[in-house]
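Work through this:
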Amino acid sequence: MHRAKSIILGAGLLGRLLALELVTKGHQVDIFDKGDSGAEGSAARAAAAMLAPLAESVITEPCVVRMGHYGLTRWPQILQTLNQPVFFQKNGTLILWHRQDANEAKRFSAALIKNHGLMDFLQAPKELSTEELQKLEPALQGQFQQGIYLPGEGQLDNRELLESLHTTLLDRGVNFYWNTPVSPEDFSPPVLDSQTWVFDCRGLGAKPSWNGLRGVRGEVIRLFAPEVNLTRPLRLIHPRYPIYIAPKENHVFVIGATEIESEDLSNASVRSTLELLSAAYTVHTGFAEARILEISTQARPTLADNLPAIKQTGPHSLQINGLYRHGFLIAPAIVDAAIEFVCEGSHDKANSFEVSFSTY
């Protein structure tokens, strides 16, 4: 029997997840990427991988929140199929603020309450007193008088995930072609069998063939802080943007939040670095003795409306792009919508998530 075949351009988060689902469906899968297996050029490598739909609802559209809620269910299922463990937790998100940012915190809290009322499938936010906050997160040592707890939200380790996806796909017969930049035109008929699917998941690499695709620069700091014992991701209200601190395993912390309309991938600015590190120190003084493991920058692929989209460009070809800052939050929903179309010819999942799905 002829085995279905798929070719994926781009081995970032989306490409690897898509490959996993396709090979599970019985496809022979080849993946091409301009970089190497470490995914250094992928936006997914410079990320905190927080799964926080209600927290994100303050700055994004309801469809992203619904996809994020779906992803919280799908991620454990996906991780169970991998051959290496990946750090994952659903310990909630904690929102904090300093006294001078109390007004902004009120606005943020009101938005959370309003959004939960519109999307009651999410767990309700809970305002915490000083005593409740101390009980929930003792490591804060009474530095904050109040907070907001968003139960049920989660996170995973992005780099462990990328590595585990890679080794699992190798074990399942997926062929990787590293340091091989290609475009969809390289796989146009009659080069390939007419039934072979081609998926363009190159992120910003697809810019020449997707009008309006742009990069939004982000800067992320990874720290080793053995004196800090936070047990869940924190979001600190900040005058310019909410700063997150995501604790990973073994006292590694990912700190970030900057969003700059630029595709510049040069080193992080002094301003951003000082803001992120200073914010971490005000949350816990133990960060003063932390060791800086890495300061990384990356540009997130973003469309005009800051929402993801799928385009069918031929009978058996799809372009998937525009995950913006929500890659880990929404990737399972986007991949499942694409798989449903490939295997069943249906747009039901894409429609339910309000994902733009255009046909050729």
The mean pLDDT is 94. The radius of gyration is 21 Å.
